[in-house]
Amino acid sequence: MGALEVREGFIELYGAEPEGVWAAPGRVNLIGEHTDYNDGFVMPFALPHVTTAAVARRDDGVLRLHSADMPGGPVELRLDELAPESDRGWTAYPAGVVWALREAGHEVTGADVHLTSTVPTGAGLSSSAALEVVVALALNDLYALGLKGWRLARLCQRAENVYVGAPTGIMDQTASACCEAGHALFLDTRDLSQRQIPFDLAAEGLRLLVVDTRVEHAHSGGEYGRRRAGCEKGAALLGVDALRDIPHDGLDAALADLAGDEEVARLVRHVVTENARAERVVSLLESGDIRAIGPILTEGHASLRDDFRVSCPELDLVVDTALASGALGARMTGGGFGGSAIVLTDTADVPTLTKAMEEAFTKAAHTPPRVFEAVPAAGARRLA
Ligand code: GLA
């Protein structure tokens, strides 16, 4: 849905013009999974799928939220009553952003918000971050808060961690806020320094497919938090601030120190090798060798499946089927426990691969996956 329709939806709903229309995208992550809360490296890129918001300010301390994708009329909240973990529904994300802005001392006195989204929900494609970032960007512009890039992303992460109560890292919000069309974003989550890496698949005769398994994932659920706590325990046992501080050539020594705590050792092995994979991928992309990243993506999947243990049978089936059909590489993307996988393939192999995927899912009696091509798109922006 374009800016015009969202604007019209706003007028119908609230009986007045919005002050503007903004969009923020979902993302896929190319490499660097479960590294962001370990101060490590990630490399997401934005999808063309966006959450769009028409917004107008209010000065009476009221926040009205409406989504064209949800049943019912606007939800009305009082700003002075917003409280962490008081809301379990979708409105917790935008309300959390308003809460986080006010808690950081920004003067936001209310808003009317009308939203619509093309980012699939529960698919590991960061629909939550898109929702947070679009609202944050709109309020930033309307209230002239002067927040940009990672500062906006940090506030959205705080909304998600504290208000929603999901202990996620900084990757998704930064991807939605900062990505650029035609590029992957190489982000050092320790100091939030960024490099935009040109990522032109078509020029190399390649495609990147996203395969949404339709197995819904959730991050406020305990498994994500348990992995995070396990990583923090590993860092504490090894006497470092974060697992980022264990260099790849120090891995064997670290694992020897962790002998006796097999579970933590496996988490540590994933994070240390994954950071190394992210660094290898970035240097291959910078030297123009996209094809060579395929096997590294696949290695990443094996590590997430066997060491970090966040895959699921459907994600493994995507990866196995893709590789058996000639893909250059494949891996789950995002938090895991369901959601989506990415597949790097020659353009000519796309039809065979898509067919093989459908057949494999039918044979295994899984719900058919949703397969689409991902081209790196723009980050959050004002549309009107
Ligand atoms: C989710 C979280 C991110 C990140 C990934 C795993 O998407 O929101 O912060 O931890 O999982 O890489």
Describe the structure.
- This protein has helices at residues 3-14, 92-103, 127-142, 149-164, 171-178, 222-238, 251-257, 262-286, 294-306, 313-324, 350-363, and strands at residues 20-29, 41-42, 44-57, 62-67, 75-78, 111-117, 183-188, 193-198, 206-212, 329-333, 340-346, 370-373, 381-382.
- It is of the alpha+beta class and 384 residues long.
- It folds into two domains: 3-196, Ribosomal Protein S5, domain 2 (2-Layer Sandwich), CATH 3.30.230; 199-373, Alpha-Beta Plaits (2-Layer Sandwich).
- The strands form three sheets. The protein has a six-stranded mixed beta sheet with strand order 5-4-6-3-1-13, with helices on both faces. The chain has a four-stranded antiparallel beta sheet with strand order 10-11-9-12. It has a three-stranded antiparallel beta sheet with strand order 2-7-8, sandwiched between helices.
- It binds alpha-D-galactopyranose (GLA).
- Residues 33-34, 36-37, 168-169, 171-172, 219, 334-335 line the site of alpha-D-galactopyranose.
